[in-house]
Amino acid sequence: MRPNDLPGIRDLPLFRSMDEASFAELMNAAYLQKFPRQVDLILEGEPADFLYVVIEGCVELFSRHAGRETTLGMVVPVSSFILAAVIRDAVYLMSGRTTEASRILMIPSENIRAIFEKDGAFARAIVRELALDFRVMIKEYKNLKLRPGIERLANRLLRLHDQNAAAGSFMLPYDKKTLASILGMTPENLSRGFATLRAYGVDVAGNTVTIADVDDLRAFAKMNPLIDQ
Amino acid sequence: MRPNDLPGIRDLPLFRSMDEASFAELMNAAYLQKFPRQVDLILEGEPADFLYVVIEGCVELFSRHAGRETTLGMVVPVSSFILAAVIRDAVYLMSGRTTEASRILMIPSENIRAIFEKDGAFARAIVRELALDFRVMIKEYKNLKLRPGIERLANRLLRLHDQNAAAGSFMLPYDKKTLASILGMTPENLSRGFATLRAYGVDVAGNTVTIADVDDLRAFAKMNPLIDQ
DNA sequence: CGGAGCATTGAGACCGGTCAAAAACAGTGG
DNA sequence: CCACTGTTTTTGACCGGTCTCAATGCTCCG
User: Fold this and answer.
1) pLDDT tens-place string over residues A176-211
2) Chains A, B: CB contacts under 8 A, how many?
3) Homologous superfamily in CATH for domain B3-145
4) Which residue stretches of B3-108 are H helix?
5) What fold, for B147-228?
6) Domain limits of chain A?
7) Which bases of strand C have any atom within 7 Å of the beta carbon of a protein residue?
8) Going by C-beta distance under 8 Å and a sequence separation of 6 or more, which residues neighbour residue A222?
9) Measured distance between the N- and C-terminal CA atoms of chain B, rounded to whole angstroms
């Protein structure tokens, strides 16, 4: 694997500060692979054999239980996933599948752990990464536990709106079924949620969303920096 | 602060592997304090000035939003809390209060971060701790997103039953109001949940719970090692 | 014995889920 | 360009779980 195959990898917070030899060693052991959409990459319950980095495309993390399925997160370039399982040499707690054609870097867990043991800068980078992931997770948990579905939707729309700054409208980055699963609601309910938010100036056409009066929606959503950041 | 004031601290996974000088430095900067019950230790939104370690007693982590309040976790001896906020030099995402008279060790964040930067073993210990906390958090999130309230209750009872191995009955470690909040339900609903579980051999008298037929309850609960561990 | 707080129970409302069907949409091949 | 097909989204009707509010019972303590 040639380093110039990997724009962005070395720049990732996770790999930026580690020393050159360690990085080379990691990349040497790694595989860069292309996957079509809807390929299962990992399955919850199986041992964490690889750390994954999404270079291109998109990966959906999800979990199944008792006939239900829920989306736990979407991973977009360039970032890694299931770091915690790799570090603890444990079993995956989430399944993962591509939602579009993707290029994925797979780094064997043993190599991650070996370098983690000897490269202090890498260990510190992992700390920072995990601490961040953990805080994101807490926020999602609070979001789910403290807010009704429609407020979760409103806040998600506001977040998307703010990311596509200035523009009056934006595109939903995934289909509505997936969005519903992320928000912890059914597609039917999401649909009704959109209908309700029309009264607050939200217009949905296909997957294009226009927010007429952001302040109005913001008031309804009860944004909270300790949940929405 | 004398080290022999602190049984268990040095044995914590977080501090076990760090070198003696670093540990002494940390303990030197730390405060060991006694608090009565119902004292607010930290408030969400404020900067993380200290890492906390519960030596004796119990601390409830909780969060408020829009007039609601929910319990995010209970910290019992001997373990630390809000490590992620300290590492990221960020704001607390949870509030914390004692639920009984407690002895708490408070270590200034700057000292944690300083030693984290220079002691590789400590950095690695933090990684392991955060990775574990993260996985516990994921499980809680899945629990909430994938299961109805009564199944969360059933599984929680089974977990408590298993912890008090062999014994036919056990005590709820907190009052029912708190248990309800942990489980993400109202006290009224918890009460009805207990009533429903009577049909599966669960008997509740005060805060003493007896499970007549564990297998029966287990079948109902749909235990899942990827949620309940 | 009385009061405070906690736990339980009941009634009603609401949010969210299920099921079924219609409508909108995208992609395909004629 | 248009029918055809399969998928996604929406809508409607209905049901169940959960919350709220209120009243009652219980227990612990002063």
Assistant:
1) 999 999 999 999 999 999 999 999 999 999 889 999
2) 141
3) Jelly Rolls (2.60.120.10)
4) 13-16, 20-29, 83-87
5) Arc Repressor Mutant, subunit A (1.10.10)
6) 3-145, 147-228
7) 6-11, 15-20, 25-26
8) A147, A151, B65, B66
9) 37
